[in-house]
UniProtKB/TrEMBL annotation:
Occurrences of domain HTH merR-type (ranges): 1-21
UniProt signal peptide: none
EC number: 2.1.3.2
Reaction(s) catalysed by this chain's protein: carbamoyl phosphate + L-aspartate = N-carbamoyl-L-aspartate + phosphate + H(+)
Pfam families per the UniProt record, alphabetical: OTCace (PF00185), OTCace_N (PF02729)
Name the UniProt record assigns to this protein: Aspartate carbamoyltransferase
Originating organism: Poseidonibacter parvus
GO molecular function: amino acid binding; aspartate carbamoyltransferase activity; DNA binding
Residues the record lists as binding L-aspartate: K77, R161, R212
Keyword check for ATP-binding: no
Enzyme class: transferase
Keyword field: Pyrimidine biosynthesis, Transferase
Length: 291
């Protein structure tokens, strides 16, 4: 039985095969591939895009979805997450999709279940399905020719599980990853080059991925106002000029903080394409792990 806890759980060959299925599923036509299967979504953190994309993906494949409201579940009565998952597992679902604020938690549960666990985001650690849909979007844009392409991930890199998964996944397909962030948001490792301002690197990159400023994940106040941050790190039409650069964002976008209103209308912005691709890629993942 295979799980998806981190992108390394799939080989390069498996990911390429996964993307072949995603391409077929992108027409969003419903089918019965997972007819009779039951998928449980267990989200201990708020989510709109990821949760709805998984639920739509499962239903497009003919599966039934059970979405548990953990905020009012047994957890609020003192039950541990391990007990909660053990009880769900005893009901014999065909997969559990989980998001939790604790780094590494989904991976600790795989030995205690009889079905695949899919990590929908764990703390600051990983968001494998987001990284896979990002890679799919980039490959689709460049007709699969991404060897040697460079991506600048801009913003709150330190707390971003999206940055964490992408920095591990994209180099496996030949891409160079660099980070752009203020000192307080820089990654704590030195594995990738880090810059203070996008202007330092903008002429060298093929893709820019802006990140949401996750102030709720920090224990300190680094800026007097969010506008102070936006003055240096918001992606604007002036930032891109007439350069042929792909613009991505995992969502939700803080308008005029992460990306300007003008750039959200720019044809180089593929954020809504990412959302569509997210359903197709998650359909492919569910087919792979559950069928």
């Amino acid at each position: 039985m295979q799980h998806l806890i981190r992108t390394a759980d799939f080989s390069v060959e498996e990911i390429i095969e996964l993307f072949k299925d995603a391409k077929e599923f992108k027409n969003m036509k419903s089918n019965k591939i997972l007819d009779g299967k039951i998928i449980v979504t267990l989200f201990f953190e708020n989510s709109t895009r990821t949760r709805s994309a998984f639920e739509i993906a499962a239903k497009r494949l003919g599966a039934e979805v059970v979405s548990l409201d953990v905020g009012t579940s047994s957890r609020s009565k003192g039950e541990t997450i391990f007990d909660t998952v053990a009880n769900i597992n005893a009901m014999k679902p065909d997969a559990i999709i989980m998001r939790h604020s604790d780094c590494g938690l989904p991976g600790t549960l795989v030995e205690h279940v009889d079905c695949p666990i899919i990590n929908a985001g764990d703390g600051k650690h990983a968001h494998p399905t987001q990284a896979l849909l990002d890679l799919y979007t980039i490959r689709e844009h460049f007709n699969d020719d991404i060897e040697g392409k460079k991506i600048a991930i801009v913003g709150d890199v330190r707390t971003s599980r999206v940055a964490g998964s992408n920095r591990r996944l994209l180099p496996r397909f030949g891409m160079e990853v660099v980070f752009v962030a203020p000192d307080c948001f820089k990654a704590e490792h030195n594995e990738h080059k880090q810059y203070d301002n996008i202007r330092e690197i903008i002429d060298e990159v093929d893709v820019v991925m802006s990140l949401r400023t996750q102030l709720e994940r920090h224990n300190e106040i680094f800026f007097e106002s969010i506008q102070e941050y936006a003055n240096d790190y918001c992606i604007t039409s002036e930032t891109f000029g007439n350069r042929d650069i792909l613009l991505l964002h995992p969502g939700p976008v803080n308008r005029n903080v992460d990306i300007s209103d003008e750039m959200l209308k720019d044809p180089r912005n593929k954020i809504l394409e990412q959302v569509t691709n997210g359903v197709a890629v998650r359909m492919a993942i569910l087919k792979k792990l559950v069928k």
